[in-house]
Every structure is written in C-alpha cells, then in structure tokens.
Design brief:
single chain, 6-stranded mixed beta sheet, 3-stranded parallel beta sheet, 11 helices, about 40% helix, globular
Length: about 290
C-alpha cells in the first residue's frame, strides 16, 4: 500500500501539471502518508457512473489487487499498468513492467522523464517515498547504482530524504505498537528456528483501534530474528486471512504464495486464504516447510 501511495500521488502531480483532470483513488490510504503533497486530494471512491478516459494502475500485479477500485479501472477506455513484480499478469492495454527494478517508483521516474514531464519537488517527494518504502530503506535485494542515482537527482530538487524516511520507516502509530507487542508474544518457530510465524485476530485489531497502514513492518520482525529464513505474518479478515511472507536468503516467497493465487517478489510476497485462522496456519506452514533446506 505505501508504495502505491507514493507512486499514485507522483502520477497525480505529473498529470495535473500536464493540464489533465485527475482523480487519485486509494480506498484505504494509511495516515502515515498524509504528509505527502496533495495527500488531501486522495479519494476513497468516485462516481460509479464516471467512465474515465485513462486508468493507471501502479505497483499492482493484477486487477484482483485493485480491490475497492477495480471497477473504475476496468471501465476506463484505456488502461496502463506500471509495475515491478515478476508475477504481473500484463492485464492492461499498455504495460510498463520491469521485474529487475527494486521499486515501482524508480520505473515511474524513468517513465515521467521519457515523456518530458518536469520533475518538481512535490513529484520528487512522492517518488522518493515510493523508492524508500519499496526498498525497505534501501536494505532489500535489487537496489542498484541506478536506484541511488535516481535518489541523488531527487535530492537536488530539495526533497528531504531524512523527513521521508523518518515519517515512513521510523514513526509508529500506537496501534502498530500494540500489535507489535502482541505478535512478539505469539511468535512461534518451526524447522529448527528457520520459520517464524505469528498472527493477529480481528478482535485484536478492534481492541487496538487499527487503521489502514497499522500492519506495516510487522512481518519484518520475524524475518530479522537470527537463523530465521521465512517470516509468516497472518492477519484475520472477515472471510479468511491475509498472509505476508518475507525471506532472507534462498526461499522464493512469491512461489510459496502462488499456490494460493498470491504473489509478489522473491523475498516479499503475500496471499489471501479463505479459511479459518487455524486451518490457514496449517496450510501455509505445510507449504513453506517444503522450501526449507
């Protein structure tokens, strides 16, 4: 979600500066990103009767990931997809996909340059936010010299890297802190400590007054424990569970999630399973164990 916020608002600024009439729709935008320029312009929904001339999806593998606003996109006269997931289904009329890029925002910066868009400080702030969050603060695999060259160009515009990283990577909401305590107490280990698993229930979220974005970073807690290869974070939803996976060295978690119609990156992926929590735990554990050496 956080990467979509940065990319979406960067595209919004670019199109508005080109004189276009733009709606940026993010049904569940985390308040963490309220500092981004024109974040107040983000809509949770739009007029269902409006048929957009152009629909642009960013950092999204397929239309299923557009839950909450897929209708606006699918009904658009022309559709574009800008993404960096290797599991992208090429669902748009025009697809700009680069699985080698560590961040969708890095691709977007290239796209905007190629069509002659002036990169303003506001656009740069949004793009830098997308790059910083997508790369985990430049810690994940895939970060290249091109990534840092892109960031350097943005810094020359006056974009504040310290502010972006502090607000998106360091700051925690109280709800996130409460969930952190819960999942640490519930952490279970399997396969000689190579798998870490934890979860939160809907009741937990209600007690903590959880809002969109409050789950960010929770799956990384298990991954950062010594000897853990795969971290599993399960979040109970109304009709099943959402599962986030992270790996350290050799497990392709996108492949792990593929059996459940999920996907993502080599070291970061997710899926949704329409089973009760305990059943889902068993199924994902069974799948992950087959990948452990």
């Amino acid at each position: 979600m956080e990467m979509q916020c940065g990319c979406s608002l960067a595209m919004y600024h670019a199109l508005v500066n080109m004189g276009k009439n733009v709606d940026v729709i993010i049904p569940r935008m985390p308040k963490t990103f309220s500092f981004l320029p024109k974040a107040n312009e983000v809509k949770e929904e739009s007029d269902k009767n409006v048929i957009y001339d152009l629909g642009i999806a960013v950092d999204c593998t397929d239309t299923k990931r557009l839950k909450g606003y897929e209708e606006y996109y699918e009904n658009a006269k022309v559709k574009i997809s800008i993404d960096h997931h290797s599991t992208n289904s090429m669902f748009a009329d025009y697809n700009c996909i680069d699985p080698t890029s560590p961040a969708c925002a890095q691709i977007l910066l290239m796209v905007l340059h190629s069509i002659g868009v002036e990169i303003t400080k506001d656009i740069g702030t949004c793009i830098l936010t997308g790059i910083a969050t997508d790369t985990g603060g430049f810690r994940y695999e895939g970060v290249t010299t091109e990534t840092f060259e892109s960031v350097a160009r943005l810094l020359t515009l006056g974009v504040n890297l310290t502010e972006v990283c502090k607000k998106t990577l360091q700051a925690k909401t109280k709800a996130n802190f409460e969930l952190t305590k819960l999942i640490m107490n519930r952490m279970e280990f399997f396969e000689d400590g190579k798998i870490a698993l934890t979860y939160v229930t809907r009741e937990d979220e209600e007690k903590a007054n959880v809002l969109p974005g409050d789950h960010e970073g929770l799956v990384e807690i298990g991954r950062d424990i010594e000897n853990v290869e795969v971290s599993i974070f399960i979040r109970e939803i109304e009709d099943g569970v959402k599962i986030s996976l992270r790996s350290n060295e050799y497990v392709n978690v996108a492949e792990v999630c593929s059996i459940f119609s999920g996907g993502g990156h080599l070291r970061a992926a997710g899926c949704t399973i329409r089973f009760p929590l305990e059943t889902a735990k068993e199924k994902i554990l069974e799948r992950v164990k087959t990948f452990i050496k």
